[in-house]
Amino acid sequence: MALLTPFLPCFMVAMKRSRNIVILTGAGISAESGIDTFRSAGGLWEQHRVEDVATPEAFARDPDLVLRFYDMRREAIQTKEPNPAHLALARLDREWPKRDGGQVLIVTQNVDDLHERGGALNVLHMHGEHLNAWCLACDSRPRWTGTLIDRPPCPVCSEPALRPDIVWFGEVPYRMDEIYEAVAAADLFVSIGTSGAVYPAAGLVRTARELGLQTLELNLERSQGSAWFDETRLGPASEIVPAWVD
Ligand code: BV8
């Protein structure tokens, strides 16, 4: 390890010392790309009750309402572009292993593809992805950029049994074992653009602290989890994320 000059701010030290970094992102990292967040003023949930659109019960009760809600959002994200925060994380993801030999894993609650379109390679969508469908007849997860409201045939089994490949409330988030393993192997946990309102994602910072990781929060405002972080830096992601990475 390069000799650390004694006056480096504590997180510069942590960055230099950290080999493996787990980064949790939420809707706030995509806000400046024009994708609605959930709980900020005028956010998605203010336009829709969660119970009406993001639960299996809602889908069973009114599938057209749910399919239209996700069709609208799937179409919207395809008109948006990654912002400097996505681009900065992609640089870190690509360059960190060369600089330090460690790994970066971006665990996102987001269901847009802006991390990938920004160039990130190691992205884990714990709440699913708008641009996948899920066939309830054959359990395949075909790539899907169109609408589902007209019950199109599954490209694998031809059954009209496609639903959004989204983790709804009450459903089990994807690849939790991998996420906990990555946190257990990391030295630094960074949370970006999340209110800390939804579990188990919101509990990851506590798991990180219990395992002795350094924890850093980058957010527009203090979140429900801020008290659990060693440091919180406030500001728009497009400014504070590149400032942290670079
Ligand atoms: C589950 C669907 C069992 C996709 C979503 C305790 C333990 C475990 C579960 C629970 C628990 N207590 C309650 C539960 C149940 C529930 C839950 O958490 N309920 C909450 C409301 C209390 N959880 C579940 O049902 C989960 N499943 O628990 O299964 C289990 C448990 C453990 C292990 C295995 C299995 C399923 C949760 C997933 C639900 N699906 N979305 C979709 O429609 O998009 S959640 C939804 O909220 C989105 O995915 C979103 O990502 C997520 C979190 O929201 P945020 O991303 O944080 O967005 P938000 O708007 O809230 O905040 C934005 C933040 O950004 C703000 O802080 C804002 O200040 C900031 N910001 C804004 N602009 C900027 C910015 N920051 C920087 N720059 C900016 N420009």
TrEMBL record:
Binding sites annotated in the UniProt record for Zn(2+): C135, C138, C154, C157
SUPFAM superfamilies found in the cross-reference section: DHS-like NAD/FAD-binding domain (SSF52467)
Coiled-coil boundaries: none
Main localization, broad class: cytoplasm
Domain Deacetylase sirtuin-type span(s) in chain numbering: 1-246
Note accompanying the cofactor annotation: Binds 1 zinc ion per subunit.
Amino-acid positions noted as binding NAD(+) in the UniProt annotation, renumbered to this chain: 26-45, 109-112, 193-195, 219-221, 237
Entry text on domains: 2 residues (Tyr-70 and Arg-73) present in a large hydrophobic pocket are probably involved in substrate specificity. They are important for desuccinylation activity, but dispensable for deacetylation activity.
Protein name in UniProt: NAD-dependent protein deacylase
Protein species of origin: Novosphingobium hassiacum
Organism placement in taxonomy: Bacteria, Pseudomonadati, Pseudomonadota, Alphaproteobacteria, Sphingomonadales
Gene it is expressed from: cobB
